[in-house]
């Protein structure tokens, strides 16, 4: 029997059944709200973009990067999706990634899908989006401002999402380590992972903004200062 | 322009999942590191006391894509990743395309809303 432990997301059994059920219910309710709100952000231009952003997050999550000897991290993607396609669509993107990973790739337990969705698709996305909105004025000022905003939002989304696990462990953890140790290790390790998350998110958002700033959700409604070629039509008539 | 951008984006995802993924660190990630804290991996067994000892066998461990390998084959991670990208883009793209707002006939489909 295979007992060696390797997974990228929470496995089954790390928290007890009632806790899994509660966070499963939270995930379903949260996703239902996101699905309803997502419609307003989806049109024939943004829907294909959202599909590809989902596939991109799946791909990049496969690439674990080293953070310490014997420890690695991978993209969670909360700020990335929130900045590119908005928080409502973005949460659905990450939920699809987590469902595909759990169902097809045996990555992340089935009973842990609710906790994984709560942590990464809900907490992570909205933490990242909150920071991005708070810094929106900076993001809209210049490409550098946008890239810096993406980095900070991604760092925060990683650390805050890791606190989701601490919360779930506090509510109904199956034991094996003290809550204090779990808190310290989760925050410490995810602060390091957050730097990698920030770099990947900043590079991705910067690359999309360089060629298609109109597809960056966070820049919607701002004047096209980032589009150099599309100079505003001169003239004061009308 | 839009189609070219989307194809380029898909290509990047395929290259990352199908190629760059071979460079991935195989060390446990942040959450795994915490779950394994207190244990030493002794072959297939976990010695000591840690959270990961409570982890159950995965319900879909028999999936042909389990653990990012095709039928458990060595070195098939890239292929598994490419399949994952294609499955993900079909599911997500299909869902989002179905949910999208239909622009009324005659209105400019490229207009940018600014609400």
Automatic annotation (TrEMBL), chain A:
Q: Where in the cell is it found?
A: Cell membrane
Q: Mind telling me which InterPro entries this protein's record contains?
A: CbiM/NikMN
Query: How is this protein positioned relative to the membrane?
Result: Multi-pass membrane protein
List the residue ranges forming a coiled coil, or say none.
none
Q: What's a Pfam family in this record?
A: CbiM
The protein's UniProt keywords, in alphabetical order, are: Cell membrane, Membrane, Transmembrane, Transmembrane helix, Transport
Q: What is this protein called?
A: Energy-coupling factor ABC transporter permease
From TrEMBL, chain B:
Q: Does the keyword Transmembrane helix apply?
A: yes
Domain of life of the native organism: Bacteria
> What keywords sit in the KW lines?
Cell membrane, Membrane, Transmembrane, Transmembrane helix
| Primary subcellular site in the record, as a coarse category | membrane
- From the record, give the transmembrane residue ranges: 78-99
Pfam families from the xrefs?
Answer: PDGLE
Q: What residue stretches are annotated with the PDGLE domain? A: 3-101
Q: Where in the cell is it found?
A: Cell membrane
Q: Mind telling me what this protein is named?
A: PDGLE domain-containing protein
Look up and give the organism this protein is from.
Pseudonocardia ailaonensis
């Amino acid at each position: 029997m295979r007992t060696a432990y390797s997974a990228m997301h929470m496995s089954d059994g790390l928290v007890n059944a009632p806790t899994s059920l509660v966070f499963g219910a939270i995930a379903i309710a949260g996703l239902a709200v996101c699905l309803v709100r997502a419609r307003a952000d989806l049109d024939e231009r943004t829907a294909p973009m959202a599909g590809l952003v989902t596939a991109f997050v799946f791909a990049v999550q496969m690439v674990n990067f080293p953070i310490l000897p014997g420890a690695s991290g991978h993209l969670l993607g909360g700020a990335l999706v929130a900045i590119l396609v908005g928080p409502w669509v973005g949460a659905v993107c990450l939920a699809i990634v987590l469902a595909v990973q759990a169902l097809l790739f045996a990555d992340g337990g089935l009973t842990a899908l609710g906790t994984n969705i709560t942590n990464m698709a809900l907490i992570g996305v909205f933490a990242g989006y909150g920071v991005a909105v708070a810094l929106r004025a900076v993001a809209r000022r210049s490409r550098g401002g946008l890239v810096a905003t993406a980095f900070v939002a991604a760092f925060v989304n990683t650390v805050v999402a890791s606190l989701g696990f601490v919360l779930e462990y506090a509510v109904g953890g199956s034991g094996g380590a003290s809550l204090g140790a779990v808190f310290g290790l989760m925050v410490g390790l995810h602060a390091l992972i957050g730097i990698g998350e920030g770099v990947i998110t900043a590079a991705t958002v910067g690359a999309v903004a360089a060629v298609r700033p109109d597809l960056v959700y966070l820049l919607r409604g701002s004047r096209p200062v980032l589009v150099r070629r599309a100079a505003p039509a001169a003239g004061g008539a009308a | 322009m839009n189609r070219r951008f989307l194809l380029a984006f898909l290509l990047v995802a395929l290259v990352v999942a199908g190629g760059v993924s071979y460079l991935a660190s195989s060390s446990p990630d942040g959450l795994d590191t915490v779950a394994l804290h207190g244990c030493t991996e002794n072959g297939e067994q976990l010695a000591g006391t840690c959270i990961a000892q409570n982890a159950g066998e995965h319900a879909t461990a028999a999936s042909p894509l389990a653990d990012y390998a095709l039928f458990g084959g060595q070195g098939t991670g890239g292929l598994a990743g490419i399949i994952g990208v294609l499955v993900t883009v079909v599911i997500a793209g299909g869902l989002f395309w179905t949910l999208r707002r239909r622009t009324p006939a005659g209105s400019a489909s490229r207009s940018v809303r600014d609400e």
